[in-house]
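#onboarding

Welcome to the new folks! Below is a worked example of what a typical request in this channel looks like: someone posts a single protein sequence, and someone else replies with the predicted structure as tokens. Don't worry about understanding the tokens yet, we'll cover that in week two.

Example request:
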Amino acid sequence: MASLRSKLYVALLRKLLRGGLLPNGPEGVRLARERMSGGGLLGSLTRSKAPTRTETINGCYTEWLGDPQAKTVLLYLHGGGYVMGSPATHRSMVSQLCAYGGFQALVPDYRLAPENPFPAAVEDAEAAYDFLLNKGFAPENIFLAGDSAGGGLSMALMLTLKQKSKPQPKAVALLSPWVDLLVTGDSHTQRADRDPMIDVSRIGEVIDFYRGDAAADHPLISPLYADLSGLPPMFVQVGTEEVLFNDSTRLVDNAKAAGVSAELEIWHDMPHVHQIGHKMVPESRAALKSIAGFFRHQQA
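Example response:
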């Protein structure tokens, strides 16, 4: 049964993220970005102290979080539908994950659509990964994680590394990954009213912003349809109240069919990327501890 705090959190999300109608087009994206990164109660739940170190990688602003002495590093790719989000919106959650896992993290502010459609985000993710390798981190000491669109981007990064015969990270954790931009999952319709965050009526516009001239079934845009063989161990978390529920379940099924070690952890009564509410929601903290445990197990 969901905690009282999680119920309050869900009600807050529904009011702030779906309670106000946004215009279509770039103006709607601009307002959504302000809403995601702004102040108020939602901002207080995601706000964190500024990072102590930053980098510019291939022109991309990037933040370091966690223990700078840790030999293990997490490359974290934030969510936001490929059109919003930043290291700042995810800094608090990633910092907490670093504390639980005892590693440091690199969080790139990858280029967003519609200003920079596919493959800009994939290029920036690859540049950040190459930076870690060039910095001296061995692949077995690099973890990868991402939420929502950042989860899809994490998959696209690993597929790109595979195409180019580059070493894979040790393991990957995906938080409610968005991997099917063809929108074929039953949960997109069955859970449309239950999801307090994602408005399915706007998904088509966001997809068009991101894919640009590429097809939505391109394997780096919709990794659900890619050949997943040869990828590292995968840990996927998803909440039962999200329209992207079937993205996670089918991704794990496909990964297992391709011979990849893949584990699915379902969080009942939880919304999309509930982990970001860790300051308020006990289930969110438990989920982050579970991810940290998965990474520790991979190093055992």
